[in-house]
Amino acid sequence: MHTTASDGRLSPTEVVQAAAERGLEAIAITDHDVLSGIAEAQSAASPDLEVIPGVELTARWEGRRSIHVLGYFLDIGNAALQTALRRAEDLMAQHVDAVLDEIGQAGGKLRREDLDRYRHRYAGGAALVLGMLEHGVLRGAPPGTGFRLLRLAALEPRAYGVAQAVRLIHDAGGVASLAHPSRITRGEPLLSADALRPLVACGFDAIEAWQWIPGGWGSDHYRAIAQELDVMVSGGSDDHGKRNAKGQMRLGAQQVGIEVLEALRSRAQQLRADGLRTSQ
Ligand SMILES: [Zn+2]
User: Fold this and answer.
1) Choosing a second label site near 238 at 20 to 30 A (CA), which of 95, 178, 179, 182?
2) 148 CA distance to ligand 1 middle (Å)
């Protein structure tokens, strides 16, 4: 689940309250590339709601493509993980400054402060695009300039590749799961085992088979793939605190059996005990 620490609409405390109202026994806070929502969520939770410290790392894959890597049961004080996340933030800040500079040179006006109102872990490509559109900074720019700047804004830097991201999670005592495989390739929600094999070989412990998909299909497919590739499964609502037309939130809409959680927990304990490390 996501909180206001990244792109969620609910604060960590509100996420915990909503989970408690729905009678959940455990939730994982997996904000994008930040750990800053976890402590608040853990202290807001009563003893009968476990808050699993997690993260969703945005990792580089095959050039420009991005893959989301989920980590669960993290030691959030792990120095290597904290350093990598800080580097990701620094790289993004440089990217934002460079694009703001280009906008200025093209005669547009957009400041860093203008981006703060968008809910993100920190300002990145999406905030730049929203800011440019909302502030109309490209109005009157020479033909083609707007398109070029929007494309430039969307080209976000990535601080880690997929195998590196998995390793960071393992080294921080966590298990790594491949997030929402149905969204990896646009227009191709049911990827084959062969298509996923090179990714899973980066050291993943699990793939997110139970995932929120309109209509609910897909889980059986990805559970079978997990079996074929000999990895575990994870699942979740990927809640961002948004409500649909009926006023419902995703939170709690994709529940996962407690045995799935316990299997992942055992794996994390086993990894810690073995001191097992993934290869690059
Ligand atoms: Zn994601």
Assistant:
1) 95
2) 26
Distances (CA, A) of 43 to 47, 50, 56: 10, 11, 21
Give me ligand 1 centre to Cα 179, in Å.
6
DSSP, residue by residue, the chain: ---TTTT-SS-HHHHHHHHHHTT-SEEEE--BT--TTHHHHHHHS-TTSEEEEEEEEEEEETTTEEEEEEEES--TT-HHHHHHHHHHHHHHHHHHHHHHHHHHHTT----GGGGTTS-SSS--HHHHHHHHHHTTTTTTPPTTHHHHHHHHHH----S-BHHHHHHHHHHTT-EEEE--GGGTSTT--S--HHHHHHHHTTT-SEEEEEE--TTSTTHHHHHHHHHHHT-EEEEE----S-B-TTS-BSTTSS---HHHHHHHHHHHHHHHHHT-----
**What percent of the chain stands above pLDDT 90?**
64
Give the integer Cα–Cα distance in Å for 129 and 138: 11
Q: State the distance from the centre of ligand 1 to the C-alpha of 55, rounded, in angstroms.
A: 10
Distance 10 CA to ligand 1 centre (A): 17
Q: Is 255 left (phi over 0), alpha (psi -120 to 50) or beta?
A: beta
- Whether pLDDT at 12 is above 70: yes
* Model confidence pLDDT, tens digit, residues 103-153: 999 888 899 888 877 767 788 888 899 899 888 887 877 888 888 999 999
Question: What is the reported pTM?
Answer: 0.91
